[in-house]
Design a protein that fits this description.
Strand content: 5-15%
Strand order of the largest sheet: 2-3-1-9-8-10
Largest sheet: 6 strands, antiparallel
Number of helices: 29
Distance between the termini: 33 Å
Structural class: alpha+beta
Helix content: 40-55%
Shape: globular
């Protein structure tokens, strides 16, 4: 992985100094070298900060073709690239490097933007086509690798991170609409918290010329319609197809000219990846895991059991509340997102420890929940909306079990549905996915019934009539991607258009990993695997209250009995804000009573301080709930201070 920057000016020459500043700001993404290319007319510039993983000696970028009329910068990895290299040579192309990145350059020369159909991996790239005076930028299908853009004056700017755009001189301002949507957990995948700065959406490419620019979609999930005939297989055949395709995705992601390790938690996803990866390595594979200081949240015992089972080596990073608090600001800065939990700093610290041990590449288990329905909310959707062939008495019993073990479901039962802003979802979809219900409950009851009393009068007035869910749904292809699909698949699709790219992949993935020059590779988001699982019957994804049923069966040979039977356990740190002398309490009190909070354009500091004063009188449960909201406010203060944002 690397950091990339691109400028395209319609009129004035670009600034070489601004290009260098932007590239330098991405040093953490590419500490192994920086290079730039500027077109002869000074209107186009490409910058690259390199993290050398494949082709350590000749893989410098930007890369040009032989005629010097195509130039490219790439962030990411293309898999199965050796086969494509062989094809390119057979077609008469002379390769200048052994790098996987170069294949995109020549595939574009051969197929134009249709080259994206032949690229497999996690990537973002920008290519300048001199012959056609065309800039072509693309992002992978799921948004694993970020790519931001903005137009300032007559210049189009693109970069791997927002901070690079600010370094280039783009104004740093909050976007109030996005701030509202992010706090509602339904910010679209192309929006950012910053005014006039956007992301190339997952599965899209951008074309820009002197006449203007446009975004085009080249991939989407395309879940089958319920009345659509599909090839039917036996359960055993589905399991074998999944096992083969996942094994291939893992094997391809082990290819590198540097050592490759695995992140390991106490869950089935990372355990499966480690178990399968161990079969393809000559020696014990290295696994890295976090150990929290409270037993219910400490999964090292499960991790130890897994590495003993597959013959791997385990490296454990003990993390305390003090560690998380001390590194929370950096995690937010590199993630460029709000965060209502300090647990994000745990992944930041794990990446640092992994890099300190000499590793640049890790395989992770992210994406599995999004394709197999691994979240509790999707299990509830299955029971509520996919009842065909299910015994009604069993359904009611299982729902009661889920609601007993899921606090969000319990809150949902206590909440008057008329209080929740879900009418637009019900009218559009004909049902309300449980994860959206849970968010709505959280907005109503998570410690403070509503955020509005803590907003400034101006911001409260700005958002008073806004429906975040309607705004979200308005920008989706409802007829093309949702209508007529299984409710569970609709729920997964919606989650994958906001929470997956914004939080799972950017905040907990690329942001904290690349802060320490760690390349995360995600075999569960190999598009060949996703397209296979997409067409599986939902009854294979979720069976009763067993999530990821088909994955458990496919991975059975690589799992211990404990892991095979273990339920989903989301990554989180212990709830820490229970005593006034704890580091998190001190962070909340110091930050929210300070000068940065006073300058934040969204919150009424006096109202927030009044809430802080009430914390000692709250019971532990209430105080813990409120802490999530207050931590989110702290993360806004961090972004305000680090980026010098204006309203």
């Amino acid at each position: 992985m690397c950091g990339i920057v691109a400028f395209f000016s319609k009129q004035e020459p670009i600034s070489k100094e601004a290009l260098k500043r932007a590239t330098q700001s991405l040093h953490h993404r590419g500490p192994d070298g920086q290079n730039h290319w500027i077109s002869p007319n000074q209107r186009v510039g490409l910058g690259h900060a390199r993290l050398s993983i494949i082709d350590l000696t000749t893989g410098e970028q930007p890369i040009a073709n032989e005629e010097e009329n195509l130039h490219i910068v790439v962030n990411g990895e293309f898999y199965d690239f050796e086969q494509i290299q062989a094809d390119l040579k057979r077609w008469g192309y002379r390769l200048r490097t052994r790098s996987d990145s170069e294949i995109a350059l020549h595939l574009y020369d051969e197929f134009g933007t249709q080259c994206l159909q032949r690229l497999r991996g996690e990537f973002a790239f920008v290519l300048w086509d001199e012959r056609n005076q065309l800039l072509f930028a693309a992002r992978d299908r799921f948004g694993i690798k970020p790519l931001y853009y903005t137009v300032n004056g007559n210049t189009l700017y693109l970069a791997s991170e927002v901070k690079a755009l600010f370094a280039a001189g783009v104004p740093a301002r909050w976007n109030p609409e996005s701030f509202f949507q992010y706090n509602s957990a339904v910010l679209e995948a192309d929006r950012t918290l910053f005014q006039d700065i956007y992301e190339v959406p997952p599965g899209h490419f951008l074309l820009a010329s002197h006449s203007g620019w446009q975004l085009m979609r080249y991939w989407d999930f395309n879940y089958p319609r319920m009345n659509e005939p599909l090839t039917q297989y036996s359960e055993g055949e589905y399991i074998e197809k999944l096992r083969y395709t996942l094994d291939e995705a893992i094997r391809l992601r082990l290819w590198a000219d540097v050592p490759v390790g695995c992140y390991l938690s106490g869950g089935i996803d990372s355990s499966t990846v480690l178990g399968m990866a161990a079969r393809h390595t000559s020696g014990p594979i290295q696994a890295f895991t976090i150990a929290f200081d409270q037993p219910p949240y400490d999964e090292q015992a499960f991790a130890r059991e897994t590495v003993e089972h597959v013959g791997a080596n385990l490296h454990i990073l003990p993390v305390s509340q003090s560690d998380l608090v001390s590194n929370f600001a950096d995690a937010v800065y590199y993630g460029e997102r709000l965060s209502n939990t300090i647990s994000t700093a745990g992944k930041y610290l794990l990446s640092k420890a992994t890099r300190d041990m000499g590793y640049k590449v890790v395989l992770t288990g992210e994406g599995s929940d999004e394709i197999f329905g691994g979240y509790v909310a999707m299990r509830e959707d299955m029971l509520l909306y996919n009842r065909e062939g299910q015994d009604e008495q069993t359904v009611q019993q299982l729902l009661a079990e889920l609601q007993l073990n899921n606090p969000a479901s319990a809150l949902l039962l206590e909440t008057d549905a008329s209080e929740m802003p879900l009418n637009s979802v019900q009218r559009t979809l004909g049902f309300v996915p449980t994860w959206l219900k849970n968010i709505s409950v959280g907005l109503m009851k998570a410690g403070i019934k509503k955020l509005y009393p803590f907003y400034t009068p101006a911001f409260a007035a700005f958002v008073a009539e806004r429906d975040a869910f309607r705004i979200f749904l308005n920008r989706l292809d409802v007829q093309g991607q949702l209508t007529g699909r299984e409710p569970v698949n609709q729920s997964l699709y919606l989650w994958s258009k906001t929470v997956l790219p914004n939080y799972v992949l950017r905040m907990l993935g690329d942001g904290v990993e690349m802060a320490h020059s760690i390349e995360g590779r995600l075999p569960f988001l190999d598009h060949h695997l996703v397209e296979l699982v997409r067409d599986f019957p939902v009854s294979l994804k979720i069976r009763g209250t067993t999530e990821k049923y088909v994955l458990r069966e496919a991975a059975r040979p690589f799992l211990t009995d404990t892991m095979y039977h273990r339920k989903k356990h989301s990554y989180s740190s212990p709830p820490y804000a229970l005593q006034s002398n704890q580091p998190l309490q001190e962070l909340l009190q110091d930050t929210l009573r300070g000068e940065v909070m006073k300058s934040l354009p969204f919150y009424d500091q006096k109202a927030v301080i009044a809430l802080l004063d009430q914390l000692p009188q709250m019971d532990d449960s209430k105080r813990t709930q409120v802490t999530f909201t207050l931590t989110g406010m702290v993360s806004a203060c961090i972004l305000q201070e680090r980026f010098k944002l204006t309203g």
